Amino acid sequence: MKNIFILISLLYNVSLAIAQTNYYTTTKTFNEQGYIYQCDVDTESGDINLYNKNNKWTYIKQMKKGTNTPFYVTPENYTPLYVKDKNETYNDSIFKVIVNNAFINYKGKMKGWELTIITYTDSETGRISEVLFNFADFTPYATIPVSIYRQIETKLIGLKYTLTPLAKTLNYVYQWWAIEPK
Hints:
Layout (H helix, E strand, L loop, with lengths): L1 H18 L8 E4 L4 E7 L4 E6 L33 H17 L12 E8 L5 E9 L9 H11 L15 E8 L3
Antiparallel strand pairs: 1-2, 2-3, 3-5, 4-5, 4-6
């Protein structure tokens, strides 16, 4: 009986160790089934950027079309880039639903930790065209497989916003959310 108890305890501890695997310890490329993700790790800060390798706006500054001048929203030029309409309320709610559904099997593990999701919206169509995930290497997000992030990305791509005239003058519209799955 004692041997069975010890065996069960060992198996439980091994399963916990496997479940805590940090997938994002170094900068690398994940070649998955039908998609490729890039993981960029800042070893000094522990900051991780995870994104689809096909993204074209990652690390490209937001700027006015036809210029090489970065565009930053400041108090002087502040104009919301999205029109406040029913689509924005819908999209904010759908973000939460998508993230909560993706992390349903990790319920409780994410408590107290926010995932930063950065979206790049096409300034021609108003549709989200790219997604980047940002998290620290010491958070539970580092133990989540790429497939979960892919699931979120595929559901966010294509969500539509109504853009302001200012937003339509930019190469893309940058927006971010910090979301704690519930």
